[in-house]
Design brief:
CATH architecture: 3-Layer(aba) Sandwich
CATH class: Alpha Beta
Helix content: 25-40%
Mean pLDDT: 93
CATH topology: Aminopeptidase
Strand order of the largest sheet: 1-2-3-4-5-6-7-9-8
Order of helices and strands: EEEHHEEEHEHEEHHHH
Number of strands: 9
Shape: globular
Structural class: alpha+beta
Distance between the termini: 37 Å
Strand content: 25-35%
Radius of gyration: 18 Å
Low-confidence stretches: none
CATH superfamily: Gcn5-related N-acetyltransferase (GNAT)
């Protein structure tokens, strides 16, 4: 059975980008993480408060670290004007009984970029989280939720992940999430500090995600989630695809990994 995930379309006035066509402005929610579509003037000041004491979080970003709110805002404004980019603000909650109201705490940001709806492909990237949630389940479940959205709602055939050749943490994360290394692109871009960046490219297909043989039908409008569950029922077993493996990893990290900081259970802001 699929891990419960909820998609909610928010009003156009509640998000700043329209780059995903009819799926622009979709809020994505699991039991403990919430991805809220970015509304620039509402969210940039709050994101800055989470980021400002930890500029090293942007060390491997193409634009480099930000040292002022004006610079931080300008980068997010550029994101909003990019027609191949969509940005979500990330919140996390401690486990709560079903009838209790969750206390969502802002912890970072995640994006889809290089979006090509016609070819049904995109990239997960521009990810950063407050250092206090590093090593917890947060990155895994946030990315899991966004991958569900990409494969179920956008019906992506390919999702990409790329990272600076020196960013070992990102490379390890890509492998944990189920992406496969496709190669090294030498001198792929010029970094913010003027140096050449060699970039590692990883990818995952919808067939990898659902754990099925390679498909050739690229027509839009197929009910991929229903097809996936029907295949599992027909086979009488849980799929061995990347989705199921990542669900197991998320739950394992919740049980055995680093706990969430106490501030989150108290509903306090991360600084």
């Amino acid at each position: 059975m699929n891990k419960t995930i909820k998609y909610t379309k928010v009003a156009c006035s509640e998000h700043s980008q329209q780059t995903l066509g009819p799926d622009s402005g979709v809020r994505i929610e699991t039991d403990q993480v919430l991805l809220e579509p970015l509304l620039l003037e509402r969210d940039a000041p709050n994101l800055w408060e989470v980021y400002k004491n930890h500029p090293q979080l942007f060390d491997y970003m193409p634009h480099g670290p930000c040292h002022s709110y004006e610079q931080f805002h300008a980068i997010h404004e550029r994101f909003c004007n990019d027609r191949s980019f969509f940005n979500w603000v990330c919140y996390v909650s401690s486990p709560t009984p079903a009838d209790d109201k969750k206390q969502w705490v802002l912890c970072g940001s995640i994006c889809l970029l290089d979006i090509d709806l016609r070819s049904r492909k995109c990239e997960v990237g521009a990810i950063w989280f407050h250092p206090s949630v590093h090593g917890t389940f947060v990155m895994l479940e946030m990315t899991y939720a966004l991958l569900r959205f990409a494969y179920e709602r956008l019906q992506s055939g390919r999702v990409q992940w790329k990272t600076h050749s020196k960013n070992i943490a990102s490379q390890k994360a890509a492998v944990k999430l189920g992406f496969e290394l496709e190669g090294l692109h030498r001198k792929q871009m010029i970094h913010a500090d003027g140096t050449w960046r060699n970039t590692l490219f990883y990818a995952m297909t919808d067939d990898d995600w659902f754990g099925r043989e390679e498909t050739t039908d690229g027509r839009p409008g197929l009910d991929v989630e229903a097809e996936f569950l029907a295949l599992e029922a027909q086979q009488g077993r849980i799929s061995t695809g990347r989705q199921r493996k990542l669900e197991e990893l998320v739950e394992s990290r919740k049980m055995e990994g680093k706990p969430l900081p106490g501030a989150i259970s108290r509903g306090e802001s991360l600084v």
